[in-house]
Amino acid sequence: MSAMRLIFDIALTHVAGRGRQTLVAVIGVAVGVGFSIAMAALMQGGQDDFVRQLVDTMPHVDVTDEQRTARRQPAEDLFEAVAISGLRPRDDRRGIINPTKAVSWLEEWMPGRLAAVLNVQGVIRYSGREVGAVVIGIEPEKEMRVSPIVEDFESGSFSALAAGGNNVVIGDTMASRLGAALGDTITAISSEGRARNFKIVGLFHTGTTARDEGEGYVLLKNAQILSNRPNAINEIRIKLDDPNAAPSIAHRVEVELGYKAVAWQEANESILEALVVRNVIMYTVVAAIMLVAGFGIFNIVSTITHEKARDIAIMKSLGFSETDMRRLFVIEGLAIGIAGSLLGWTLGFAITYALSQVRFEIAATGQEMTRLPIAWSVLHYGISTGFALASAAVAGYLPARRAARVNPVDIIRGAT
């Protein structure tokens, strides 16, 4: 223990004895750690905010009246080798068969909330202007449990739909394009040519252009009348208590019901993969920053081993082993790394806090933000410090190997 303490004392004496060089090396590590922490906080915050928006603004599991693979023809079930050509699609409109039974089955075991809807493709017309839109038939009370759009109303609400009558809520962008306002009556025309008048009882603004200019919500029964499909639904939206359970829930629903069930992770697979790639790039940059900082540590430890060659020889002649020598200079590198990391924590916190106070607004892109999304995580400090200490240890070990191989006889003889 006394020998180890002596090595620590010698290491700290060597480092403190080169004040200016040590300070430069410490600042280099601190800048690297500080900016790494701030960069990680900003990028992780942006990623978390983006994923949160995905999770909040879309169903965790979306069940539609489609099949993931085409249904087999009856002849394919009877014969091993079948060639089929010239098929013509049936003139029917899809929908989830036995919707009441399907919804009841889901409510029995599914850990979350759900809402059945009917999407009707069509056109909304007002005062000679037309906008292509999806008229979505909903049950207001259930939709409010699965959709965050209830928080985005500028005027009116889903509750106005529940009052009955031919009412509709639309996006503010659609209203602007039509020249319509709250209380005006618009005409919805389905793709089958059926028309129905609706009174605007609510305007919403989600910040997503596609929704604000292309969606309108009506009562489910009114959508069924508009499309001439009584009791029909073609989508079940599911919000889970645990969004991460979406893939397993979707798989079970698809197997049992036979309809395509898409988890939010599957729907955004390419985006999530891009986020993984971005994280790899981010930590590669962090490693590069720490590598550059390591050169400063390597430089100062190398200088110490060169200038203290006679001291090293004397220590080895007094019984210090090669392992002790390597340990000595690795400790010197780590001492600089630790000091730089502690200073870097303060710098990183200050930069991160400053970034969190930046306010701005972007409305032209369809998304609004008032503050930079920042993720405060101890993990960022730990990872940056880990990279810094690893770089410091390597930077100290390389010259330590050379110092450990010094022959004390040659050094002392050369100095006399």
From TrEMBL:
MacB-like periplasmic core domain location, by residue? Answer: 22-253
> What is the membrane topology noted in the UniProt record heading this document?
Multi-pass membrane protein
Which UniProt keywords are given for this protein, alphabetically ordered? Answer: Cell membrane, Membrane, Transmembrane, Transmembrane helix
UniProt domain ABC3 transporter permease C-terminal: residue ranges: 284-408
Domain of life, per the record? Bacteria
State the compartments where it is located. Cell membrane
Record's keyword annotation contains Lyase: no
Please give the Pfam families that the UniProt record associates with this protein.
FtsX, MacB_PCD
Q: Which residues cross the membrane?
A: 21-43, 280-301, 328-354, 374-398
Record's Gene Ontology CC terms?
plasma membrane protein complex
Return one Gene Ontology term, BP aspect.
Answer: lipoprotein localization to outer membrane
PANTHER family, from UniProt?
Answer: LIPOPROTEIN-RELEASING SYSTEM TRANSMEMBRANE PROTEIN LOLE
- What family is this protein classified in? Belongs to the ABC-4 integral membrane protein family. LolC/E subfamily.
What is this protein called in UniProt? Answer: ABC transporter permease
Give the originating organism. Sinorhizobium medicae
